[in-house]
Amino acid sequence: MADFHQNGNITTLHNLRCRHAGQMAHEISVFAETRKITLILPCLYSELEGPALTGILKELAQVPYLHRIIIGLDQADEQQYRHARSFFANLPQNHAVIWNDSPRLTDLQSHLQGLGLAPQEPGKGKNVWSCIGYLLACADSSVMAIHDCDIVTYDRQMLDRLVYPVVNPTFPFQMAKGFYPRIGEGKLNGRVTRLLVSPLLIALKKVIGDRDYLDYLRSFRYPLSGEFAIRTPTLPDLRIPSDWGLEIGVLSEAWRNLAPKSVCQVEIADNYDHKHQDLSPEDANRGLSRMSTDICKAIFRKLAADGTVFTPNTFRTLKATYYRSALDLLEGYYTDAKMNGLELDRHKEEKSIELFAENIIRAGQVFLDNPHETPFIPTWNRVHSADPEFLLRLKTAVSEDLTEFTPGS
């Protein structure tokens, strides 16, 4: 079953559970004989100590069709890297743990710095970018999938449903974006999507007028999901934001590089829960406060690149319009939650809206004060142009780390 949204013509594929779970995995295995699939797992070392990742690995160990798993490991010292190697060792698939803080990768970062091409800050964006570079250096995969490492309700069928639209040769899709209901522990979750992105897009349309890009973003039911699959030929030209705007940034790149009919969203789970970020109202550089600012900047940058002119008055009007739109949506969320026996704390929701409204102004000010800011990590095509040997050096550095720092040595 598929329905086509009027805005953006993004195909939505629903999870109707019409066939046996193993049937889809079998079909993917057949497709994967000629279209190899690589899964990227960006993670922090701290996630190895949480409950989610152990369950994810148990599920992934039963996935028959993965050609390779690339684990990008952040914030780890040598002892922790060795432990991570042991932690992932039970994966039966070919896999590589990329130690992003290793001396070898640090030297490569310094080399890029000298070329003016290094990622400006650590984080998920840089981690994913490095993993994509390693995937491109291996040059043997047709499809890349990515999902987060904090999904406490993970089931391997999530991956089946995520990659199927892209790996199926009879489908036209170049990219599939995952979506799912955000309900957990009897609560309505997904605060940033519900309380920031949805009303912000409504407000932007009122303030700056109709934009195809806004209609496109509004077509996605969960634009901030960390789960997507994409065909690898598009990766060398993919511009990845270095901040919390990664998910919006990837959707924006798909908008720039792909026809809408080649992008779909697919329902990958009936139940999804993961680690929840703190709101962090006291610190604009942490938690959902930082995330909301970066997401706003990502949207503003894309609209500016398409010709929208922003002024301080625009952002002041946008803040007021957003605030009213968010409160209106909150009424619907509240009644929806009550109808389904879910908790929703209206006071906390309104406090979040107030913080996000302030961060719209903050993001707008940063945008206006830094007109020459280049928030995107350079594409791998540009890196290759500056240093044709870099991808080989990256692959070699990862291989040497894997050889030298073996578990227990």
- The SSE order reads EEHEHEHEHHEHEEEHHEEHEHHHEHH
How many helical stretches? 14
Number of strands: 13
What's the gyration radius in Å? 21 Å
Q: Name the shape in a single word.
A: globular
Task: Specify the biggest β-sheet.
Answer: 9 strands, mixed
- Percentage of residues in DSSP E strands: 5-15%
| Contiguous runs where pLDDT drops below 50 for at least 5 residues | 1-7
Overall mean pLDDT stands at 91
Write the layout of secondary structure elements.
Layout (H helix, E strand, L loop, with lengths): L1 E3 L6 E3 L7 H11 L5 E8 L6 H10 L5 E9 L3 H10 L7 E5 L3 H13 L8 H15 L4 E4 L9 H12 L7 E5 L3 E2 L2 E2 L2 H18 L3 H7 L9 E4 L8 E2 L4 H12 L5 E5 L19 H19 L6 H28 L6 H24 L6 E2 L2 H7 L3 H15 L5
Parallel strand pairs: 2-12, 3-4, 3-6, 4-5, 7-12
Antiparallel strand pairs: 1-2, 6-10, 7-10, 8-9, 11-13
Helix pairs in contact: 1-6, 5-14, 7-8, 7-10, 7-11, 9-10, 10-12, 11-12
Describe this structure in words.
It is a single chain. The strands form 3 sheets. Strands 1-2-12-7-10-6-3-4-5 form a 9-stranded mixed β-sheet, sandwiched between helices. Strands 8-9 form a two-stranded antiparallel ribbon. The chain is an alpha/beta fold. The termini are far apart. Helix 11 packs antiparallel against helix 12. It has helices at 21-31, 51-60, 78-87, 103-115, 124-138, 156-167, 191-208, 212-218, 246-257, 287-305, 312-339, 346-369, 380-386, 390-404; strands at 2-4, 11-13, 37-44, 66-74, 95-99, 143-146, 175-179, 183-184, 187-188, 228-231, 240-241, 263-267, 376-377.
